[in-house]
Design goal:
Length: about 180
């Protein structure tokens, strides 16, 4: 029977390693005279003494296995490499909806060019928004890590300060949307 059924197994629960003795010791052992028993000895203690290697303590099997620690899930979403593409497609979708709504009123070349700039600007704005959110996540992570690992913060400070791809794309999207407003006036 097993421990799952409620009964315990007989023995130590560990693999037993046979003791191999050289042939010279095996032959000499029966020829020696048996030692007289000075005191009554429990047979279980003798069996345990024979099984254990000198200097080793008996161990018990582990009954409860600790659960592995899962990674900490914070309130922040980890974005993959395709997140800016998805943001850009969302911006293009919003630009397409804008074209469908305003397409009937655009009669001149300037109005149609303004709609093209609006679609391009909204697509760039969608990508910039996702990249900016990822940059904010990295800044928050950096501020959390500043307590534990100050030397790592200095290495990433140059990457997040100054002109980042998110800030550049945001500035270019603003410029393209400004062009859309300028062309349509």
């Amino acid at each position: 029977m097993s421990e799952r059924n409620g009964s315990t197994s007989v023995g130590t629960g560990t693999a037993e390693i046979p003791i191999v003795r050289p042939a010279a010791q095996a032959e000499a052992a029966p020829a020696s005279a048996p030692e007289p028993a000075a005191a009554p000895v429990d047979e279980a203690n003798i069996a345990v003494d024979r099984e254990m290697v000198p200097g080793m303590q008996p161990t018990a099997p582990v009954t409860v296995r600790p659960r592995p620690r899962m990674p900490r899930r914070g309130p922040l979403t980890v974005m993959g490499p395709w997140a800016p593409v998805a943001g850009g497609l969302l911006g293009l979708l919003l630009g397409g909806i804008t074209v469908l709504v305003l397409g009937g009123t655009a009669e001149s070349f300037e109005d149609r060019l303004a709609l093209v700039f609006v679609v391009l600007g909204l697509g760039m704005l969608g990508s910039a928004g996702v990249l900016l959110a990822d940059e904010v996540r990295m800044m928050r992570q950096r501020s959390r890590d500043a307590v534990v690992r100050p030397q790592w913060v200095e290495a990433t400070a140059g990457l997040l300060n100054g002109l980042t791809p998110a800030r550049l794309l945001l500035a270019l999207a603003g410029f393209v949307l400004f062009l859309a407003a300028y062309v349509s006036r």
